Amino acid sequence: MQEFLNEVIGQYRSHKQLAEKAISQVSDDGDLFVVLGGEENSIAMIVKHVAGNLRSRWTGFLTTDGNKPDRNRDLEFEHEAGETRASLLARWAIGWRPVFDTLEKLTPEDLSRTVHLGGEPLPVVLAINRNLTHTAYHVGQIVLLAKHFAGDGWRSLTIPRARAHR
Q: Which of 2, 87, 115, 136 has the most CB atoms lying inside 10 A of its own CB?
């Protein structure tokens, strides 16, 4: 089970890095805050949502409900006055801190425990899997939006496509 914990830590680190590399490729003065339309979210909104979710779920992971009463989820999907790249990245860092602090202290024995999310009891392994999946989903959104805004200036985050030679 230690292998599972090591893999989960590696996956979270990879998703965090992908998002950060994608965010670094968009401009401060607009692209972070652009909503393409309708009910869609900007990169800034997704960053705030992921940070809020991670902080809520991973703070007191084994001992408190994953839905913290001080979290204002709805505000994560609004642009707040004075938001900047620096304020978003600070919020992002705060959200990720409890993920790694908690995962690095979990033991294989902890994986057989039960945690609560919205009052619902969940096995630790299921709670971890749900959150990792949720995080990966939103990191994919960040990457897609960043790639859209970077256009031809996009630098691949993984293995670049082969370019056809003519």
A: 115
